[in-house]
Structure formats: structure tokens, C-alpha cells
Amino acid sequence: MRGGRRRALALMLWPALTVPFSARGAFFSVVDVDRNGTVRETTAEIQEPSRAQAARVEVWPSSEIEASRPTAFYLAGEADALFGPFALDDRVPVKIGGLLFRVSGVGEGSLSLQDERSGQVYGPFAATNATPVALPSTNLTLMRTSSFIRGTLTHKALAVKNVTVALVPMTAPNQKSLSRLASAFLRLTQQYHVDTAAVRYRLPTVRTVTGKVYEPVFEPSDRDIENSRKKADMGAKGAFKAFLDSARVSTAACGSGQRFAFKNLPPADYVVCALADVRSDPDSRAVPPGVVIWWATLAVRQYQATDLKFDQQSARDWQDLFKPAR
Predict the structure, then answer these.
(1) Could you tell me what percent of the chain has a pLDDT over 90?
(2) What is the pLDDT of residue 21?
């Protein structure tokens, strides 16, 4: 049985009936009504998570990381001469004045330079800032680019002009803010299932002409489901904004097809995330409008460059981001 709001239907079914649709996360609920009008509701699918349980979350594995590599290096000479940037990889050509070298012997935090003509190898040199590099007839100083994260954001159904992309260092205070966001998302998801759950009423001895017990099932209408989803999406956007406001983050505004970047990053664990409204997919009527989230977790080492790709494939429903820990 479909259509209308379930509370109104319940009142029509039994004039004195009032059913509290509270903290119920089951996808199917059963309401027993005895001859005295006593209501007993039972559920078994999903129980409301406690605050402690909700704080322990499992985030989906990150699929947004497109590439990770060492940052480039420069060689600084006299009179503000600067050569580079050069990729920290074997066989990369390094031209300094009239001399040509090749990067060689790239190892853990070091590199060598091989003269292209003579084959003479110079080094190894530490691949860190301010390292002296002695070459024939010249003394240089190696300079490294600091760690950075950059990426693109592309979604053909994006419903907003600019999206706020946030870089969140996983410090202890930020982890507490993350736990609050997870709890909020889980509660909103639970309430959405409550609001859209079908309800079966078992009434005292109601039989059809065939003699079967009649247990009416009430389902929310399509409009009820749509309104419940809009309400949950609004709550998710509010919770995400509160997360960004409470955590110490860096942000960048990015439109569809544009790039974002976070530079000069110290080694640490980070989350890069964004949340945005999207329209219905013009190529698929099965994809309704809603709110999607991008979420990348990564560990940034010293002198590391990371490329991210936030697109339609890596976007996910915010309700799927966090799962209660088992």
C-alpha cells in the first residue's frame, strides 16, 4: 500500500493509534496492535549506533590518488643562476651551461650526476635542500621543491559554480572533528532509513474473505522518499560545514574542470575532501539529484608530489562514506 504519510494512514486505520516513529533504523518494521489498542513495535535490521560506536568508523579505501612521485630539484649557482626544475629520476638530462649530465644512482634520499661525454659520475649527493654539489669548474647548491598536493575536479552534473576543496591534517583535534562528522553522517543515514521504511501492522484477527490474516503494509510515497532525502542531504551539508569550521583546514575554491593545489606541506597524514550538489545525470534517469562527496586519505612524505583526480567516477553518495565499526 503506497501513498500519503504513514502517520496519517495509521490514524485512519485505528482512531486511537499513535505510533512513535523514533530511532528505528530497520528497513522493515512490524507494529503489533492488540484488542486493547496496545502498540508494540519490533525491529531487527539496524540498531541505532551509540556515540562511542559511531566514533569508530571505517572509511572506504581512497581511489582518487592518480599519481605520487618525488618532487623536482633545482641547482642554484653563482649570480642567482638557477637551473631546473629536474625530475628526480634516472637518466633525466641536466644541462648546466655547456655541460650535459644525466641523473643516476637515485636511491633513498640521494642522487648522482653522470657526465654525458666522459661518463664520469659525481656524487652521491643528498637529495635535500641546501646540499652542496661540486661539479667541474662550478659549485652548485641543490634545492628541492616542498611537498604538495594538486588535483582536478570534474563532474558534468555539478549544480554549483565553485566547490570548496579542503585539506585536513590528521591532528588529534581534527580527528575529534572527523569523529563528530562521522557520527552526524551515521545518524542522518539512520534517520533517512527510519523515514523511508515500510511498516507492517499486525492487527487483532483481521481476516479477508479467504480466511487469511490481513496485515496491511504501508510504504512511503515517492514524494515522501524525495523529501526525506532532501532533508538528509541538507543535514549532511550542515554537518560537513560544521566539520570544516571546527577543524583546522586549508581550503581552495574550484569549479568543474579546474585545478586545486596545496603547497609547502610538512610530512603528515591528510584528508582531502569536497562535498557538492549535483543535478540528475542527463544520461541516466536512474541517477537522481543529490549531494556527493570526494574523500582521499593519504600520507605525505618529505619532498613528495601527489596528484588527485576528483571526477564523476570517484564521487560517492555521502551516506556511503562512513560505516559503523564492527
Answers:
(1) 48
(2) 30
Contact 272, 166 (CB under 8 A): yes
Of 168, 148, 169, which is closest to residue 304 (Cα–Cα)? Answer: 148
Torsional class of 215: left (φ above 0), alpha (ψ -120 to 50), beta (otherwise) = beta
Cα 132 from Cα 118, distance rounded (Å): 22
C-alpha cell at 215: 496485515
Peptide bond into 266 cis (omega under 30): no
User: Quick one: which H or E segment has residue 54?
Assistant: helix 51-55
Q: Find, among 263, 259, 248, the residue nearest to 304 by Cα.
A: 263
What's the pLDDT score for residue 245? 93
Q: In the chain, what is the straight-line distance between the N-terminal and C-terminal CA atoms, in Å? A: 35
Could you tell me if 171 and 248 are in contact, meaning their C-beta atoms sit under 8 angstroms apart? yes
Q: Summarize pLDDT for 229-244 with one digit per residue, the tens.
A: 999 999 999 999 999 9
Q: Biggest alpha carbon distance in the chain?
A: 106
Distance of alpha carbon 276 from alpha carbon 307, whole angstroms = 20
Distance of alpha carbon 309 from alpha carbon 152, whole angstroms: 5
pLDDT tens track for 89-127: 999 999 998 889 999 988 878 999 999 999 999 999 999
pTM of the full predicted structure? Answer: 0.74
Q: DSSP readout, 199-254?
A: EEEE-TT-B-TTS-B---EEB--HHHHHHHHHHHHHHHHHHHHHHHHHS--EEEEE
Check if the beta carbon of residue 111 is closer than 8 Å to that of residue 105.
Answer: yes
Residue 139: count of CB within 10 angstroms of its CB: 10
CB neighbour class for 102 (10 Å; exposed up to 12, middle 13-18, buried from 19): middle
Residues in Cβ contact with 81 at an 8 Å cutoff, skipping those fewer than 6 apart:
none
Lowest mean pLDDT among 49-53, 87-91, 136-140, 162-166: 49-53
43/80 Cα distance (integer angstroms) = 74
